[in-house]
Amino acid sequence: MSLRQFSRFFSAAMSTAMIAGGGGGAAAATPATATKPSVVLVHGGFVDGSGWEGVYKILRKDGYDVTIVQNPTISLADDVAVTRRVIAAQPGPVVLVGHSYGGVVITEAGTHDKVAGLVYIAAFAPDKGESVNTLIKDPPPGAPVPPILPPQDGFLLLDKSKFAASFAADVDADTAAFMANSQVPWGVDALGGAVSDPAWKSKPSWYLVATDDRMIPPPAQRLMSKRAGATVAETGGSHAVYVSKPQAVADLIKQAVSKVQLAAR
To answer: CB-based contacts of 86: which residues, under 8 Å, 6+ apart?
Structure first.
């Protein structure tokens, strides 16, 4: 079954004088003082960054520096630009995390020099020239079909009455209803945005498969993660696994940070 069917960098710590003056002889950090990579979280379509709250709180409690990107999800180019600005603002290396469509964003934005690793959470991991549209076209018989309503003014929404079953089946009912009623319209242009240089070809990657996902079928997730050469973990969970299983998501992110930091020594 093909994907078509489912249609280190490490920056050493530098002194303020060296950053300001472009030199000055400041020594690179030793392994004992090496900077822990920051974590940058990128949301997908139909939602905003608030869904990362549970993951954010776990990581912050455990001492990680975490930033959440608020993508407009109007076009891939805009989302990549927003994400790259956040990456550039981090003090050192970055582990870049994407959920769903956010996986497309990190695949394109992840070539930034500060990005040391990629983590995909039930996400698209496209190859060169691929987009969400090319990855979801021609689904096999029996595959779940997301309840996407016809586009209005160039934007897509999910049918509110079917949102929970398709997107957030294991999220508590009140939260799932809130997510359905607070949807962010997803730009048609964003779905058509094609990747030019997949970051997973040059950066290590990790992938969490949500085995009960009814938006991106688990077999497609496994195929994309295998193609990317990712370190794979699986957990029972809906497409909103980052909301319903924040500990499993945080654990994989921490694994990626640890591996990236170790590799830099």
So the answer is: 40, 67, 69
Give SS3 for 62: coil
Q: 69-112, pLDDT tens digit by residue? A: 999 999 999 999 999 999 999 999 999 999 999 999 999 999 99
Q: Where are the alpha helices (DSSP H) in 94-148?
A: 102-109, 132-136
Beta carbons of 195 and 109 less than 8 angstroms apart = no
Separation in Å, CA 194 to CA 19, 76, 107, 115, 225: 35, 8, 10, 20, 18
The SS3 assignment for 138 reads coil
Strand partners, 44: none
pLDDT band for position 27 (cuts 50, 70, 90)? very low
Q: Do residues 230 and 125 make contact, with C-beta atoms less than 8 angstroms apart?
A: yes
Question: Strand 186-187 and strand 155-156: pairing?
Answer: antiparallel
Query: What are the tokens at 24?
Result: 């000055």
Amino acid making up residue 118: L
Of 102, 121, 103, 243, nearest in space to 177 by CA: 243
Are 210 and 120 in contact, with CB atoms under 8 Å apart? no
Instruction: Using alpha carbons, select from 96, 107, 101 the residue that is nearest to residue 202.
Output: 107
Do residues 9 and 116 touch, judged by C-beta distance below 8 A? yes
